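Q: Two folds, back to back.
A: First:
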Amino acid sequence: MARRVFFSFYYKADNWRVSTVKKMGAIEGQPLLSSNKWEEVKGGGDAAIKKWINDEMSGKSCLVVLIGASTAGRKWIDYEIKKAWDDGKGVVGVHIHGLKNSQEQQAAKGANPFAKFKIGDEAMTKYAKSYDTPYTSSKYVYEYISENIAEWVEEAIRLRKAA
């Protein structure tokens, strides 16, 4: 059975790429919201967004940050990283810039969203790894992520337990 995870990502820029990762079926994430539903959640303000995140993250064993060109440093992604860690969940990042979007375009590689966080005196990157593919072709990027993401999630859970 696939692990249940929470996908963290920048909706506006990466929802197509995230949908591609979700369809791989290697791990089970929360249902992805339509743009209309996301706008409805956002319309409720910060409290509604926090409630949605908290509700959707409940019962998940790992946070998977799908890293696009503009993911790092976003308010809600930072909130999700901190919440997942504080809740004892594994935390892992997967660079998705090499997957094509709906316009058949790839993106620039984004920064590591874990780089600014500390766990005590140590960098969070010791416990929250981020993975990039060695490939440039979207087809091979897809295959690489598909073949490895389940193990990356398992490793993140092991690293979290060891922290």
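A: Second:
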Amino acid sequence: MDSPPAARVPKVFLVRTQIDAILADLAEGDSVPSERELANRFGVARETVRHALRELLVEGRIRRRGRGTVVSRPKLTQPLSLRSYTEGAISLGRTPGRILVAWDDIAADDPTAADLELEPGTPVMHLERVLLADGERIGLESTYLPLHRFACLRGSYDPTTSLYAAIRATGVEFAGARERIETVLAAPREAGLLECTTALPMLLLHRRSVDADGAPVERVRSLYRGDRIAFEAMLSPVSA
């Protein structure tokens, strides 16, 4: 029986492999050759090079700087655990930060009310903040808290710091959480706040946390740039 013909290797893959070899010899912040230079070097169309570079941008290997492209630093890899973004970033040697976008009291919609075990329309505290790592915008976080439990934060909490630390300071301890992760594209407003395009893949996290009594503490929606952050988890065997 004849062997099946070998699959044709896409030209973009070949160009991507060659660019990978170039990046391996460059350091963080070094300039990447231009599209025109790469197209001439490899004897391909600029659109082929553009496609390969777009893949590397999405993966976070390179980033735009001004009108050029440079080698990016490795992604921030966050462990999936019951701690704040601030704590996770510091543990990885990065400098966390936050920019306050909104801090207001709103009426809980049905999903928020269900997660916080409230009646729909009950006032909840809402904080929306841009997450920073070493000054770079990497995420957008919206947190919803039961107002009757955490109204005291209004007079004491600095929204550019860790919210988890402030909640613990009120005597509330986090005991567990349910978290779901999915891939999405950012809405135009979200892309603007994160200084990226709407075509960039995002990681969307939904979290519901409870205290030691099982009472809801928070509902969180976190949107992260897929080119700047990754998540990992420690897994243990379970019995069948």
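Q: And?
A: The CA atoms of residues 79 and 111 lie 26 Å apart.
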